[in-house]
Amino acid sequence: MPFCLEDIWHYYTSIPVFMLLLQNHLPIHTENQEVHFKGNETQSSVYSPSLSLSLSLSLSLSLSLSLRVCVCEFRKMAEASISVDQLSVDQFSCTVCLDLLKDPVTIPCGHSFCKVCINDCWDQEEKSGVYRCPQCRDTFTPRPVLRRNNMLAEVVEKLKKTEVQAASPAHCYAGPGDVECDFCTGRKHKAVKSCLMCLASFCETHLKPHYEVPALKKHKLVEASGNLQETICSEHDKVLEIYCRTDQSFICYLCMTDEHKSHDTVSVKACRTEKQSELKEEQMKSQQRIQEKQKKVQELKQAVNTIKLSAQTAVEDSERIFTEMISSMEKRRSEVTELIRAQEKAELSRAERLLEQLEQEIADLQRRVTELEQLSHTHDHLHFLQEIKSDLREDSRSIAVNQHLSFDGVRESLSALKKRLEEFCQEEFIKIPEHGERNRPAGKSLLSLQRAAAVQIILPPEPKSRQDFLQYFCDLTLDPNTVHYYLILSERNRAVTRSERKQQYSDHPERFDSYTQVLSKESVCGRCYWEVEWSGDVFISVSYKDISRKGRGNECGFGRNNQSWSLRCSSFSSLIFYHNNIETGLGVPSSSRIGVYVDHSAGTLSFYSVSDTMKLLHRVHTTFTQTLYAGFWLSWDFISKSERTVRLCDPTK
């Protein structure tokens, strides 16, 4: 930053500052001679305090003349635009710490140091009593008194401020891609404006004349550009400030009088105004097109998501339906196998009975032969005749055994069923569109409808009456390895009761140690139905086998997690259903006999009040991912302490 004349006048129009100036390297001109001080000594004599005082008084008397000369010298400095940032930082650095001077002092030899640095150096020389300059090695005795060099301190402060300003964005240097100032020497600053008249670019400092000099104020300034030559007419070396609409080119004013005479021309500014309005209109159209395309993008994304969701739903439906079909066929296969085995068992049982009968008759005949042999040797004619008459027996009727038991009827029925299924699949599956479902009403899946129709043909209908449910009855027992310590099993592990005393059960990894619960030993798969009688306050449940057994957390309690489903039956309140720790009040009274029906493949769990018509209490539709087990939770009533009992019922009773 350049020195300003007002600052110079402020600093050097006082006698003390002027006297300090005399002691710090500055020449003072008089009319007849030049006196030059260096440090605290003159060039011709050794420094002494009396000499300094006399010189100061003498100079004070001629203050007006000397001050006039000094101001003249500083005016020249100001006009030369000498700035602090042009000075070398090294000239104002301490040679001891190598940093800018801090609290600078000047010693008798004329060199300046930080006050702390020179004191540290001289403190080390205190024993010898001889003090040296760290730079020129001059010696001093005694130790000089150090005084702050105010002039030097001001210069250093100016230099520090200049460095801060130079580091700011407004005074930064030109970097890659920036337009450089054409008037900067050395490292160039970044240009802020370009002049079309001067054909040059200027930084903030060199641009000031264009704002201050009247002749330069008329120049046309534009944003800094590195391609100013492109704005000049190559033929006339004039600024291209006219646009020829006829030739669609930029020209100068001399071109208008020559090649482009009588052409449709307009100033660049007016052309810019026209194009600016066209640009705004084009921007609006482009923005509108962007919005339209963004809307189409959203619609397309939504369509993609819909297709993915529809395809995933179709896959899940097909997997579920095929699983149900396979499960149904597996069940039918098991039933046919059981039917064949039952017929086999019946025929074998009949054959065994006939075999026993024949063996008995053979034994009787053998005994008869022996008796007749003995009778033939008797000499008593009367006895002989009597025995012959009494032992005459008719032989048993002929026994026919079916040696060729035929299952041709079963085989023919299965072959017919296979043929019907193949024909059905061929006829129905061909209706599925090759490239997905099109023109289908929302919410209806052709695939699911066709699969559902196939399942209805293969699977029997849902049970309605108690007799229908009993077709799927499962004979369950309770697992002693899972029963809690305060539960007692009875009736060949088909009943469980809450006990006040802890039972001496062995430790087992599958045993519930906190919740008074028990699981069935047999799993529940396919379609399964069982009936439960209860008393007190109990939870009738189904659960995955992976349910946690140890601890008091919700992961162990039936209905408190996503691995179990539980119906709470209480003599004191209506039914409540629990799953994943969510309570659902059913608002219906409890029934002393509850029927539980599970269709694992269909993902349904139903609770019924047992009667001939089977009243539905609650039904759950879900997807079972593991094998299910029946379970019971017998809570403890600390108030009434009524008995808690659950019994798996025999449907014949």
Walk me through this protein's architecture.
Residues 94-137 form the RING-type domain. It holds the Pfam family zf-C3HC4_4. Residues 228-268 form the B box-type domain. One of its GO terms (biological process) is innate immune response. With 653 residues, the protein is α+β, with helices and mostly antiparallel strands. Helix content is 38%, strand content 18%. It has a seven-stranded antiparallel beta sheet, with no helix packed on it. The chain has a six-stranded antiparallel beta sheet with strand order 17-26-19-20-21-22, with no helix packed on it. A three-stranded antiparallel beta sheet has the order 10-9-11. Strand 7 (131-132) and strand 8 form a beta hairpin. The radius of gyration is 59 Å and the shape is elongated.
